[in-house]
């Protein structure tokens, strides 16, 4: 008895392509990223600077994230995030919980 096996004429093996693994920003990286957005050097992050920082982290909703961050981290209610005290830590904690990934 003879068994015939038919294979498709256009059968080919394609190499497996692996996706690049993206890692989450560390809290230290986030802290440095936010500090670098203090463009006027006043030691505070304004709404405009926060919005740009979140956009640079990859947020599609920079304004929303900045507004929520300001609400959560601006403990003295002056409209700014002070990058020299606990407000920055609260901001970093919020951004870290958002799960931003370092661009591959």
UniProtKB/TrEMBL annotation:
Q: Mind telling me which Gene3D superfamilies this protein's record contains?
A: EF-hand (1.10.238.10)
Q: Which Pfam families match?
A: EF-hand_6
EF-hand domain segment(s): 25-60
Q: Which domain of life is it from?
A: Eukaryota
Alphabetical list of CDD domains matching this protein: EFh
The GO molecular function terms of this record are: calcium ion binding
SMART domains cross-referenced by the UniProt entry: EFh
Alphabetically sorted, this entry's keywords are: Calcium
Put simply, this protein is called: Parvalbumin
Which species does this protein come from?
Trema orientale (Charcoal tree)
Give the source lineage, highest ranks first.
Eukaryota, Viridiplantae, Streptophyta, Embryophyta, Tracheophyta
